[in-house]
Structures
1.
Amino acid sequence: MNIWTSLAPENLINLAIALPLIGACLVVALRRFPNIREGASITTGIVLFTVVLAITDNTFNQVNMSTQWATILPGLDIAFDVEPLGVVFALVASFLWVITTIYAIGYMRGHNESNQTRFFCCFALAISTVMAICFSSNLLTLFIFYELLTLSTYPLVTHAGTEEAKRGGRVYLGILLTTSIAFLLFAILGTWMATGNLDFTPGGIFTAEQPKELVAILLVLFCYGICKAALMPFHRWLPAAMVAPTPVSALLHAVAVVKAGVFSILKIAIYIFGIDNLKDIATTDIMLYIAAATVLLSSLVAMTKDNLKARLAYSTVSQLSYIIVGALLASSIAAAGATLHIVTHAVGKITLFFCAGAIMVAAHKKNVSELVGIGRKMPITMIAFAIGAMSIIGLPPMAGTWSKWYLIIGALESEKMIIMIVLTISTLLNVAYLLPIPIKAFFYPTEDKPEPWRWDQVKEAPLSSLIAMIVTASLCIVLFFFGQGIIDLINLIPDVSTQIKGQS
């Protein structure tokens, strides 16, 4: 981390955005040398993570970091600055890029996937746009790179080139672009017309001078315009994107796309509307209860899915709305819980998708009903799955325990008992559709009289994939005991720090 201390703070932002672009160029240049190509991807990811660590260190030291790329109109800039919420997301995305790349090497080769150079190149481009989203200093910059993220991930969704993949890609691109143009763009224009300001500002930019009806409408437009958060009924793109290879699913559900969605909603709630002001907006409760309904309904749908990736996809829809609920509860501790859930859900869900991909590569199985007794052949994978599942559920000693705890405390603080009940019921539904999978894998025999277990029965995924899932599964436990650094960073977010202190 110290190697970057000589750089000007604004150059750290530029470097964080540029490094994945450089990595994409290296991937293309080294396409004839797969081992070197993958080595370049991993190296670029590691370097990016050290840059983000340097940015994190500056954030703790209260060093101002900002840079401006261009001025579109007076007061409308493409500009970036660093604030703690963006740093949390950048840490998650940059670290998990390294781990997902390691996993993808084993998966793509073990599954004999074609177009691997295109895959790793688009992956790097997506991470570059994520870094730009993390450090956007205004809504215009956020909108530009939010759209570029959609475009850069489209080739990943359609990677297989089959008719099913193309159809899934059309749904993915159609819903995300349509909602951005129909809702998000108008929300940004409405905000500019009402305030003359698009900058992310502590406490928000709306005041009592703006018409309450307009502010109420803008909140709805933002919530539905940021469709990557998969709020019902505009969630169908996410299950449709499951036609993509599993490393892409991991990118969509844990590293980049969906997290960019809920991060954007949370950032707008804190820096555009203001946590304290949200409770006075007429549509806050409406969107809160729509998010709560999404939590429950998507969990119920997940229980009906036999396809493992589809079950995990609807689980993601549910878990994303936990973060939206936290943003809309208008509570400091709920917003803190939502921020922490970005981290804990990322490590838990990426573990589950890694396991799903490993099962596909090693056992060629896609459905939950086919996994009875598979723990005898893939014990490491199914142990990792059990750990990831328990973290998503929120069972101690797993990382997900803390984020759900803060969300429930935030619901109580806001006197929203129905939200607390929804979160509790959803947790029970998480148990119902996740825990039976490892239980059947380990404790249900595949035969009436199974033979004693032997090591020579084990057939796991390629080593690099195993290493990746072991790292993320371990993080699910480590962050339960040693997550104070993340808590300290969350404490620095304006209007979120006061009540979370002393709770951990």
2.
Amino acid sequence: MLVGEFMGWNFSVGKGGAMGSLIACWVIGLLYTCVAMIDSEVTSTVAAAGGQYAQAKHIMGPLMAFNVGLYLVMAYTMLEAADALVVGDLLTAVAGEMGHDALDPRPFVVLTIAALAWLNYRGVLMTLTVNFVITAAAFISIVVLFLGVQPWHPGEMLQHRELLTDLPYGWIGVIAAFQFGIWYYLGIEGTCQAAEEVRSPARSLPYGTMSGIITLLIAATMTWYVATGLLPWEFLGQAATPLYDAARVTGVPALQVFLFIGTLFAAIASANGCINDASRSWFSMGRDRYMPLWFGAVHPRYRTPYRAILFLIPIAVSFAFTGLLDQVITFSILSGLLGYTFMPINMWMFRKKWPLGTIRRGYVHPFHPLPAIVLLLLCITTYFATFLGYGTQLLAMMCFYIVASLWFVFHRYKYVRRGDQFTMPWSRPRGY
């Protein structure tokens, strides 16, 4: 999910200035480190498709599981729409630089989502292998840009002394920046969606999640350092493709080409991963009858949740067609944030029902309950940050999830077969 380094994070600069964005980057990095630690322990034990949805189903109960599944689907589908928007905007911008008339980005949006949906339809091994390769290429482009601006010679290309300012909106601006600081890391929790499709979940999931968050922390800091040294914060705070714009400012054609490829690859890789993650969550909800059972089908040849993949395509396309990148990002962030708020409660209940030593864990996160407490406090702070800039969207999303919960309780729950959901060979919970 390296796309956050190529777009979206920079809206935090518009909220809190360059230094406020850096503070948000590291504070939200702490939030996601807690997410990664908690996720690694629970998911290495609950090795089932659906990730956090499967965790809630086994630990907290059906209503929470339904909501968590919906959070995941909405977060990943909105992220997919934002990625497709960036692909369309980037290609039309490059076409304009080459002297072509203004192009409509919507055909590129449809083509991107359709091609990646076909890739996911054909199989998870090919999907995730392609993702690994193009994400690695995107990360290399960040390293190339970092080395290309010669950070060991400050003042030659990087102009931090002239461009870095005090906090333009004070500390309230720093808090407001927390919302878009999430974009650096959003999606790292999606590693656990492939729990049923890896050889050794107890080893692979913690390793993938923890190594992923380390990679993102390094890339996020490098991204901030380069972009804020090349672009004024007033421009950076509203740019659609900040790293590509930073490469253009250097005047080095090779860097511009590298960052065009890197931005394109990062957006495609993120959208590809989002289709994989959202479809697994929707498939799991269908298989457990939280949604119509029709969605719980697996392709007889490719062994993929093909109906869930196809169903979510028009939803992603419709949001991408709005063209409102910051609004789509906000909807994705809010759904993700609701999912993170569930994690501390889930962790406390997990340790209480199954203390250490009662069931086998692939990974045990240290310092419990400190990471859960820190995560909950940071989530509450980020809700306030979102309310400062997007209060209407926050209230609309909350109303949507309340209505969906009522629909589940009064209509859908009667179809759920509770006994079929508990697939883990655990001992009876303590106290039950």
